[in-house]
Amino acid sequence: RIPKVRTGKKVAVIGSGPSGLAAALQLNRRGHSVTVYEREDRVGGLLMYGIPNMKLEKTVIDRRIALMEQEGVVFRTGVDVGKDISAEELQKQYDAVVLACGSSNPRNINAPGRESKGIYYAVEFLKATTKSLINSNLSDGYYISAKYKNVIVIGGGDTGNDCVGTAIRHGCKSVIQLEMMPKLPDQR
Fold first, then answer.
1. Burial of 97 (0-12, 13-18, 19+ CB in 10 A)
2. Phi first, then psi: what are they for 148, rounded to 5°?
């Protein structure tokens, strides 16, 4: 859906995850010229690296990005806003800036032994695996391997479940998942 009329307005979208892509798509369809900045080497944010291929094939993301490019959206990867380009520079170049950078701060647990070796944040584990899988089918070794290990996953949500599935696909020796929330009420 290439816009029939362009407004002449330029918008920078910081982050190419789900919210950044949605904002870029809607702004472009309204006729604004949109440039999306992504600090990673590929567009998609959490969709690309945080969600395992078993749940979301990356061809789906690639297809959507290709369509958005055909519609006029420009993607700039490998640009860390605040380091590679300043906020002041973006404000000079664009009429508006949309911050859709997600949260890169994982939730820590305060427990004895937390600083021990072999304890990782979920997204760190998932991102490394997916990136290595895409780049080299895991042959580069740039991921946190669970092969032959006894794995404990703390958290029972989607991300925790993704970690369980990924650990099993790695060939872990065993996996236990702990839910931090209280038990749901019994059904009557």
1. middle
2. 65, 15
125 vs 145: CA distance, rounded Å:
9
Residues with Cβ within 8 Å of residue 52, at least 6 apart in sequence: 126, 129, 130, 162, 165, 166
What type of residue sits at position 61? I
pLDDT digit string, tens, across residues 29-72: 999 999 999 999 999 999 999 999 989 999 999 999 999 999 99
pTM, whole model, 2 decimals? 0.86
Query: Which pairs from 111-117 meet CB under 8 Å and 24+ separation?
Result: none
Extract the tokens encoding 60.
């789906």
**78-111: per-residue pLDDT in tens?**
999 999 999 999 999 999 999 999 877 888 888 8
Spell out the residues 6+ positions from residue 55 whose beta carbon is closer than 8 angstroms to its own.
Answer: 162
Q: Which among 159, 14, 20, 168 has a CA at the least distance from the CA of 97?
A: 14
